[in-house]
Amino acid sequence: MIDVSAPPRPATAAPPRRRRGLDRRHVPVLVTLGLLIAMYATGVGNYENFSDTQVLLNVFVDNAFLLVVAVGMTFVILTGGIDLSVGAVVALTTVVAATLLDAGWPAIVVLPLVLLMGTVLGLGMGAVIHYFKVEPFIATLAGMFLARGLSLLINRNSIPITDPFWTAMAQERIRFAPGVFISTSVVIALVAVLIGAFVLAYTRFGRTVYAIGGNADSALLMGLPVGRTRIAVYTVSGFCSSLGGVLLSFYMLSGYSLHAQGMELDAIAAVVIGGVLLTGGSGYLFGTVLGVLVLGLIQTIITFQGTLSSWWTKIVIGILLFAFIVLQRLVTRRAR
Amino acid sequence: MTALTRHRLFWPAVVLVLLLVSNVFFAPRFFSITLQDGHLYGSLIDVLRSSTPLVLVALGMTVVIATGGIDLSVGSVMAIAGALACLMIGDLPDQGSVGGVLLAVVAAVGLAAVLGIWNGVLVTVIGIQPIIATLILMVAGRGIAQLLTDGQIINVSSPPFRMIGAGYFLTLPVSVLIVAAVVVAAALLTRRSALGVLVEAVGASPTASRLAGIRARGLTIMAYVFAAVCAAVAGLIFSSNVASADSNAAGNLIELDAILAVVIGGTALTGGRFSLAGSVLGAVLISALDITTYTIGIPAETTLLFKAVVVVVLCLSQSAAFRAVVFRRRTVGASA
């Protein structure tokens, strides 16, 4: 098999790209990075104490679970699919974990069990999408109903978690200096990001993901394992959702069927703002990280402003979505 | 007999009848309709009345899906329409004035039409995927609705406005009459003129229809405007029924129910052929499902599980790949 990660490139194609000095594929990510820096600078310029390192670290602490969920979503969107079930799977994970822990199950059993549950759910949705040719939108919508319904069926009230391992994970802080810290969830999330980025960039599976998003038919004709890969990305997303659910239960120390309402939208927004092409085939996990940070910084700025109401978050996210999608169109149109 | 069972609305209709009949075991007087104070009362009327917003939204969604698109913003448009109408009525010196209420209704529907144009332009002129284009308004729209109402629930006490959702005319609920009128108008427009065929052509193959001289762009924008106007009327019925504008609750998750209704009604999500009657049936079916779980005494949360099962079963039954696997033996036997 040919090594897909380093395709032999005709010598004539390379120079013009290099002369421009900027890879077109990097433009959306760079724009997001610029936006992030501009937002941070605005925050520092306008609000007292905004320049504290901890303010920036808190963006990570408060969004670690979203980061993990967005990693899974990136895989799915890179193949040109979509996963609407992530928020519901996150909620189901917190509820099942809290219920089992409440029943006295040890954390060492509960943790792998809930992760397996999310993975199996993702696998099931992927299988339905691939084998029965059901639209990803509808299949994952059914998964969303199923997961949210199950969690409501298990318990419609919020269940507190008192397990020592869970509380330890919730309270554990990794301190760099007095008052400068991150939670263990951030470390887990960053590890997930690094593994995801490595898989996407350097493994055969990762390159196949891009190939399917570029053109599924061509990928199939090239002999790539399209079916297996497509099922695998939904499995990855299911796993990431349940891992995100575990992190959310660390953060909230409770399981609740109404946790993570609308998180699928946040995750999709983060991926889009991060410059991943919604039709698939182009984008970077690093962009997704930036997208999550942009969403987090919007929240932080609105909190610092104090006079702005929470609904401005939605409006600003909507405007950013619009701006980035139009930018994507411009970039891809020039590519043709 | 086979012709009947093969009809695409046969199974949804059977499910609806079964659902309604199953209610009799738990509420013996389910099918009785009585005339009281010149109004028709009864559970069947309630099913119709509670289904009105969903029927309207599903109707608009059908036309959009027929063009090969999808509209996720309908719930937010419902919220915006309700918020604007209640805001304007609340500001009237005399809330009972028919002229003022009419003005508010026209303004709400007009604003919705503008939002529909916005969606349509994003999809056709800028060329964004419909899911994503309407996602922008879905996220930002709810923010706008909350901005209009300032995050509060606006209560109005206006008899003319109350008529829309809770009034009766000629013994029938006004909301049911409005919806019936819209359904009839839409059916006449699409089936007694070339409009329906043109929309199906655009959905089936945009390129071919453009080559055939169909102005696909205008038709698609019109579809989104129709969906938004339907959603606005649905929002007016909803907020009139509760005599208030609640920007969070109005139309929450209705886009998913509406898409479900369209799919139940036999319109494929890939666009092309559509069935307005099927979508109406699907929407009534979903409302009947909600009411049935209520009469049977199952906790309301489990409707989500029911819906998940319904979506999975319906999608699988519509999936050609699934039929090929399950019914292979039977078709072989029939042909032999």
Automatic annotation (TrEMBL), chain A:
Its main location: membrane. It is a multi-pass membrane protein. One of its GO terms (cellular component) is plasma membrane. The keyword Cytoplasm does not apply. The chain crosses the membrane at residues 27-44, 64-97, 109-131, 137-155, 176-202, 231-253, 265-298, 310-331. InterPro entries: ABC_transp_permease. It is found in: Cell membrane. This is Simple sugar transport system permease protein. It comes from Pseudosporangium ferrugineum.
TrEMBL record, chain B:
Pfam families: BPD_transp_2 (PF02653). Keywords: Cell membrane, Membrane, Sugar transport, Transmembrane, Transmembrane helix, Transport. The chain crosses the membrane at residues 9-27, 47-65, 96-118, 125-145, 165-189, 219-238, 250-269, 276-298, 304-326. One of its GO terms (molecular function) is transmembrane transporter activity. CDD domains: TM_PBP1_transp_AraH_like. One of its GO terms (cellular component) is plasma membrane. It is found in: Cell membrane. It is a multi-pass membrane protein. PANTHER family: ABC TRANSPORTER PERMEASE PROTEIN YPHD-RELATED-RELATED, GALACTOFURANOSE TRANSPORTER PERMEASE PROTEIN YTFT. This is Simple sugar transport system permease protein. It comes from Pseudosporangium ferrugineum. The lineage of its organism: Bacteria, Bacillati, Actinomycetota, Actinomycetes, Micromonosporales.
